[in-house]
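Protocol step 4 of 5: obtain the predicted structure for the target chain.
Materials: sequence only (see below). No template structures provided, no constraints applied. The aim of this step is simply to have a reference model before the mutagenesis design in step 5. Sequence pasted as it appears in the construct record:
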Amino acid sequence: METLIWVGAAISLIGLGGLVYCILTVMRARRAGLDDAAMKAKLQSVVAWNLGSLLTSALGLMMVVVGIILG
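Step 4 output (structure tokens):
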């Protein structure tokens, strides 16, 4: 079960990295001063990455909790 905990922690960190990527991408887009259409297109692409990162992080945390409960 210790392996499950460490793998889950690694997966959670990957998801956290994706969230940081999303934050940095939006900050860069805001600083670039894009017009409304370009900003909307950029944010729509970031939303998909954001949801995927949240899912990855949640799955990793579930693996950690299951590893702790079973261990």
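Step 4 remarks: The chain has a mean pLDDT of 94. Helices lie at 2-32, 36-70.
Proceed to step 5.
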